[in-house]
Amino acid sequence: MIRLSTARKLTIARALRPLAGAVAAVRGVNPREIVCTRRGVRWCLDLDEGVQLAIYLGVFERSTSAALARLATPEAVVLDIGANVGAHALPLAMRLGHRGRVIAIEPADSAVERFLRNLNLNPDVAPRVTLVHRALGAPGEVPAEAYYASWPLKRAPASHPVHQGMPERSTAGRTTLDRLVEEMGIPRVDLIKLDVDGHELPILHGATSTLTRDHPTVVFELCPYLLEERGVTPTTLTRLFTNMGYTLYDERTFERVRLATNTWPGQFPRAGGGNLIAAVGPPRQQKKWS
User: Fold this and answer.
1) Rounded to an integer, what distance in angstroms lies between the CA atom of residue 251 and that of residue 67?
2) Contact predicate 166/158, CB 8 Å
3) pLDDT (average), residues 129-154
């Protein structure tokens, strides 16, 4: 499977947007408020935003969706950190059993608003989803005023120079993952999805108690250029896991990543990244379940 940079994905999305807009026009609906069903989930989507257009087209992070489905047991407790509009949280919650739970954590105000709208369209899923409007970080870290949570197809001057995302206002308070788990009385964490645009390391620094207590499997983004923007090397991030007894695996193949070869960062596109799985022992893969 070819990995594409975010900018390349947006280029493809811009080419497909007129076709999607034409379909919306035929149906007589507003393309910025289009309601549809994908993978059994009802959505209200803005086709002028990259993540939401990808959901509409059924192509949003398919390898990550497949990995989460393979890793989550029906009764799993899953933390979706960087949940955006519910792109992974809602399909996963749809598949969980009645005792399964997804805690979706998102700091950007606009993404939380859209997530709530999508959640309200899926009342059968709502009891299994808890949406938390918070920003996670390291102990003592000051919350930011904005986070990248939107990738408009029309590029604006304020967008990121590489991945072209737009910073979205956040009124969320800052906390650590460990403190949030304690606050919410979460007895265990089985699986974590972590996609926070290079901010992974401070979040993990605030999650050491949870990682030590539960050894949850972590599906995380490794994006070298975003880490380097924050003065972090990819090795610093991966070493945090290996120092805690984790082994790293490729999200797509579930094969072990050999960090000693010095060639594995080259698997990611320039100005792009990909996801890895961190697990204590081989990732436990689930058989198909409904």
Assistant:
1) 6
2) yes
3) 94
Strand-pairing partners, residue 178, are none
115, 131 contact by CB (below 8 A): yes
Domains of the chain listed by start with CATH number: 61-279 (3.40.50.150)
> 198: burial class by Cβ within 10 Å (0-12, 13-18, 19+)?
buried
CA-to-CA dists, residue 40 to 82, 111, 118, 121, 192, angstroms = 22, 21, 12, 11, 22
pLDDT computed for residue 3 by the predictor: 66
| Contact call for residues 32 and 48 (beta carbons, < 8 A) | yes
The pLDDT tens digits of the residues spanning 187-202 come to 999 999 999 999 999 9
Retrieve residue 237's tokens. 């991030």
Assess whether pLDDT exceeds 50 at residue 122.
Answer: yes
Q: What secondary structure does DSSP assign to 48-117, as a single string? A: TBHHHHHHHHT-TTHHHHHHHHHH--TT-EEEEES-TTTTTHHHHHHHS-TT-EEEEE---HHHHHHHHH
Report which DSSP code applies to 135.
Answer: E
pLDDT for 290 equals 41
For the chain, give the number of residues: 290
CA distance 133 to 288: 32
pLDDT, position 263: 54
